[in-house]
Amino acid sequence: MDIILHLGAHRTATTSFQHLIRENQARFEAEGLGFWGPRRTRNGLLTGVIPVPGPQSRDAQLQRAAGRISLAVEQAARLGLRQILVSDENMIGTPRRTLRDGSLYPDIGERMARFARAFGGRIARVSLSIRGQDSLWPSLMAFSVARGARIPDDCRLRRIADSRRGWRDVITDLACALPDTPIQIFPHEIHAGTPERRLALMTGRERLPACPPPEWLNRTPDLWELRHRVAERGGDPEALPPGPGRWQPFGQAQCAALGELYGDDLFWLRSGADGLAELTEETDRKSALGKAPAGQMRRGRPNGFEERRLA
User: Fold this and answer.
1) Taking the CB of residue 206, how many other CB atoms lie within 10 A of it?
2) What pLDDT digit, counting tens, does each position of 195-204 carry?
3) SS3 category, 186
4) Which segments of 119-162 does DSSP mark as H helices, in order?
5) What kind of architecture, by CATH, is found in domain 2-279?
């Protein structure tokens, strides 16, 4: 039984991806592909992998979780499944923690080391979607503010913009936690609108059952919706910019710094990522993986970079 972990990240069309699989789960299971999404993983299956307050020690919680997962894998094998895709972006951390720390998934290494133990060496592949920091952070903030969080002040925005922790650091920590496990990296700007192709690349399957067009779920709330939500709970909607469109809380120089950091991340990935991960920029499985576009010989984000994004 091969276990494939899909780790998100947050705000990379993960909800739409999970919805597509869940709505067509019977078709995929008939082809030997099982799916454990948040409705399963957050309903007790993975409880204790990340320790929770209680009388049991961290190790005892992990052992119980490992036993629970092992039983679920055995049951899946008896049903004729050959692969299980486990998709839950909270495995690597939560948006609240990421925003609080002002840093991309700072404890991903420790968390994923525990998941590696919990799955008992069955993890065949790990998939992670990444997104430009100049759009990821605003999306995380908009999502958070819409659900009751405070509008970030200038100090917090400055701290995030000045942080030099990028996807390279996240991926390096992930690779240290899961040595010898293949890691696939999917840029959100390319793969957001094609979840069925992402699934094919993750599972290594040339053909998958035909599915209806994917739905666009969990969209980033725009400024109008954010002002409405803030006013509805008694806050000051004028703390947000006027007008329509998406909220960009960062200034021009801060956006440029965040974009440059992502450009450096992509340059590192296209250069081979020190052998730690494989960049998948093509939606066609037969296309070259992890290669820089023809003619690109420098760091940074080229002009006209693909801006096709979901959520």
Assistant:
1) 8
2) 888 999 999 9
3) strand
4) 133-146, 154-162
5) 3-Layer(aba) Sandwich (3.40)
